[in-house]
């Protein structure tokens, strides 16, 4: 097995190489010796399988191993054909256990060569990346990227399956940040000012939202003394927005305390020198008026307007609410697809969320899970339409949840509707179990199996036991294929949560997020899969979790394909059980 070694910034990660790995490097790579400058402390990059060339793939390790210049990469790896070696290795590895897989899993094993009914891992991730890249680099709630993702999945299902496909629309209440507002009206002309350029909030300011403009008044001198305020122009200052110079004659706290006596509605503090910078200022605690600093230019313009147009009384409008947040509703949707056969009062739900965070493409989180669920659905549809494939006694419902990154709003909406509906097949009591696939392609992966043990008391003991029995089927597959695995807590942070707390046993797979791989895990995976496949000890499973770098380069195709096969095996195993209810609940 080929292992690639990088020098790296020792402040980021330390990993000691064993002698046999060093020997493997010397005999199996043509990397120049100058690139390996330190033989004792290096960053080990495990090989990704089946999709990326060396240069494309190794870009990911900038985040783990420090900055690696593109030109250096191209020079060092120009003649290094790891892509071909990886494909050959993976093909051999897959064929080793293909004969023991159920039909659905065998079909999934071949999905790269069945263009009419399946999608390869490369094209799957490319699709998810394309949806994000061409729609603001995100698939977050309310974005065109999210809509494009759901539309693509819906089109695939409607064109390639005979499933019943439907959407569930819902509204998500969210807080939208509103920047403070400052506008002026001088001689009938309105002007809007730019936050952080023309003005800034003063710390300890009270909130305000003036529906109508408030008159301006100038406080002479520095506004440090009562006599300054008693000479306000126009007089009195009460109920006005006061303009006060920001200088060194007294502190902002003192100015704000004196201002409090005169019942002003607001305070505008401006520089006394011609500068484009905005001062940071802190007022006294418990002031009852809104307070802002403004630039020298804005302060001078407003002061001049007051002095020149006293008879017209220039006005300003100021706005700032606590936290600068406004509650709005954003529409979103779940997408579900039911197979046409099976008992609809005994349904197996298979789900993944189709949204991402706002500042990233979310290709691993959760393009990997969403596309895995699509692969499973398309292959199942193909099998169910053949004459040789026996139909399931249970109905299978595939769902792609919206707004998971917004407190799992989509899956909670689905369960809430299932709790109140009387439509047979859509009732909560019609659901036997739920499988959740969230993050299946972490670059520094582990094969995580969600376990029922360790769930909080909010989940009933019956549901915990049923969830543990689901986990056991996953473990059986990994054991019989001699693959490593680890227990992973179901936790309360993904779309299985509303099902769990509503009495439905749940399970699923997970390749890791911001947790760190242990040395024991790295060594165990190396031992069972081959050197290099163990990954990087003491590094994040997904260094780009909830980051902008969660792109196609942030995925491990070997982990993804392994997890999809495990999911296929497990789904078919449950679908073929004659006593699934008893297995889960008794």
UniProtKB/TrEMBL annotation:
* CC cofactor: Zn(2+)
Q: Which domain of life is it from?
A: Eukaryota
InterPro entries, alphabetically? M28_fam, PA_dom_sf, PA_domain, Peptidase_M28
Q: Give a GO biological-process term.
A: proteolysis
Q: Which residues form the PA domain?
A: 220-302
| Any one Gene Ontology molecular-function term assigned to this protein's record | metalloexopeptidase activity
The record's section on Pfam families has: PA (PF02225), Peptidase_M28 (PF04389)
Q: Check the record and name the SUPFAM superfamilies matching this protein.
A: PA domain (SSF52025), Zn-dependent exopeptidases (SSF53187)
Please state every residue range assigned to the domain named Peptidase M28: 334-570
Q: Which family does it belong to?
A: Belongs to the peptidase M28 family. M28B subfamily.
Q: Indicate what this protein is called per its UniProt record.
A: Peptide hydrolase
